[in-house]
Input
Amino acid sequence: MDCSILISKLPDLPWITDVENLVPFSKDYTEDLQFLPDLAIAPTSADDIAKILKICNQFNIPVTTRGAGTGLSGAALPVAGGVVVSTEKLDKIIQIDTLNMQATVETGVVNAHLKEAVAAYGLSYPPDPASFGSCSIGGNIAHGAGGPRAVKYGITKDYILNLEVVLPSGEIIWTGSNTLKNSTGFNLTQLMIGSEGMLGIITKAVVKLVPLPTQELLLLAAFDSLTQCAKAVSAVLQSSVKPAAIELMETSGIEISMKATQTSFPLVKGATCYLLFSFDGFQGDDLFTEIEKIYPILDELGAIDIMPSPNSDTANDWWKVRRAIGETVKQKSIYKEEDTVVPRYSLPELLSEVKRIGEKYGFESVCYGHAGDGNLHVNILKNELSDDYWNHEVPKGIREIFECCKKLGGTISGEHGIGYSQKTYLDVVFTPTHFQLMKGIKSVFDPNGILNPGKWIR
Amino acid sequence: MDCSILISKLPDLPWITDVENLVPFSKDYTEDLQFLPDLAIAPTSADDIAKILKICNQFNIPVTTRGAGTGLSGAALPVAGGVVVSTEKLDKIIQIDTLNMQATVETGVVNAHLKEAVAAYGLSYPPDPASFGSCSIGGNIAHGAGGPRAVKYGITKDYILNLEVVLPSGEIIWTGSNTLKNSTGFNLTQLMIGSEGMLGIITKAVVKLVPLPTQELLLLAAFDSLTQCAKAVSAVLQSSVKPAAIELMETSGIEISMKATQTSFPLVKGATCYLLFSFDGFQGDDLFTEIEKIYPILDELGAIDIMPSPNSDTANDWWKVRRAIGETVKQKSIYKEEDTVVPRYSLPELLSEVKRIGEKYGFESVCYGHAGDGNLHVNILKNELSDDYWNHEVPKGIREIFECCKKLGGTISGEHGIGYSQKTYLDVVFTPTHFQLMKGIKSVFDPNGILNPGKWIR
Output
């Protein structure tokens, strides 16, 4: 695609044109996909983005917005060519308003950088995707990102108050107000969250902050039955105890992660799965009181071993093993990562279906994820499967997994989005009317269809 | 408007046609507004609503959806005539899923009825608008309703997982999935919340539940300075303490409510305003530990008196006085109720501007509301003002109040919606682009504009 009009109309912007420097914009963290853009740029202001979009809109040049490139559904891949607009240089934390417990940030700010900056004031920005060390706030917003601590704190959508958005027309709007409540017109802020760069380019966000907990305590429970394990999750959440996170791990995933990261983890003989509970707060004693309450619940539901983290080094090891499962499992083989989500009590049924479908199609899967939210990451490994089988038969199995999610009241993505890699499965949960409404909404924001074409909107 | 086609095409439905029985559908709780519909009906199923909408869509008959009629912005008023569709008979609680802590309800269910039903299982549906004893879940959703306990628990939008919606075409869709997370396409669920009957008729909702707290403790703090009062709110929320509610009351409002309800309240000499803190939990001792932590904060910020509720009778009285302020102030005079919202630390600035503007225009205002959320209800009383002045000059003052909200990062409605009564002020916060986007979204759902015409979408 000829994008030279952009360069000729905006000659002073720092365009990236040579293939070598365009390559980093051709991939994200999704499988083994790669699409080279014709042009890329990392603007330093919303005004520059407005100028770019206006020209793209006039000349029908595809625009793919890219945050930090850590996405897992290929939403940032320029599958239709054109220009990639990276938000990486929109990296300023504009204001930390301690009195209102809000921060205003440019959307290229890395999640961990925001966390660090507000921690200096005793505040926390809770959403914590596994990639929080490198992912951007804008990418989190565009994907509706979650993370382990969602059980207590909620997800990205629960922390976004107001967004600055550049529309294809070049107009810049704020979607709402800097308030905790807003019943003024349709909720454009929530509409932008999870919109995957298809409605506008999000350039600033006003986010809600909470007091930073100073203490954390982990509790590990080992089970020999997935069903009992999932029952334990429901039982704990029905009690008066409020864990920050409840993570589910299959033993196979833990073993891979332990080996790859050379980190110890207290494996229990006979255990097939584990729950990792995190409790946080402001007084260590309170946390011990909390976990004492859930011992009897876990006991009654057949936990074969229960142990608190004896110290913070151990806690860090346990988190390290948990967080590394995704990465290390993927190092074993080419993979497809599915982001299934169901009402949490249906997790064992989903898991047993995943295994049954895996046997039927002959693929290995390693499962782990956010049990408190019913969000199970299913990593399907290619191993020795042929390319043809991997590309044509395995997707049929994945479709069956998603049909199971739907039957259980769930859906096909809890926190990774649809982007490019999941678009073929969307008809499992969407009727033609859903597609029509969403396509209509897209047309209102982006009548010429320049924003992120080739993704899930047909 | 001739709606006889509806009756002739659907003769078996229980149409309400005579004026006497139509009158109850002509009003809600907004000021002194009244608009008689041509026809009304309270269907008992989404299927019947689908049949009705299909015909209205075909013959361009205006449809105004009505919940329990407790709205404060006139969204349920049939200002363009046509048919009122009441959800009052969609009153079934379909399922209480204790394992997933979710309930599926028809949207005519009264908020308090849902609360009672789930309380039997030790669960709570937290959103608690002042009218929770009579308002409907559907009305709460349509307005993005809040309530005092939003400080700890959030608002309606934080508890809605999935919605069944009847579109003007007669199609019935579910907007999402029954999961705590969902990154699958645009967030239609959140788009429906606060949409005031303009995008579809919401017939079922899957809502999130939480464990029901068993203990409550109130703490009352009296101040002689609004500025110090608002600073105290910020300081408490920055600490490790988490109140469920922080309500602000002017002494004048308390006095009116005490007198009208014949309820005692510990007025403190010299106090101009009060903060009512509510703490809830599962163990009474914990709550006393909590409030002990905030005494020094309130002391330091100049509270002239601080007192916990000695027993539950007293606590009930304090809540009664607080809840009755709105109603009893309105009994004094014809009024206009404004639902201002700003970042919470800006409340004193907003309040002093409200008073300054009131002096300038010569109107009395009584203010109270949700200090923890920066949501201040401003009741403006007509008293002895002439009709002409009330209708033409006072709105100029209201506009100035809203301009102040905008300047402070806030907006013109936090939880009541825009509906009919606030529509003339919307241009204070919306640019033509906002209107254009929202009008576009409406056209996608309701191409013929039959749903709630005459409201804020022009």
About this structure: The mean pLDDT of chain A is 96. Chain A touches chain B through 84 residues (CB under 8 Å). The two ends of chain A are 20 Å apart (CA to CA). The first helix of chain A runs from residue 4 to 9.
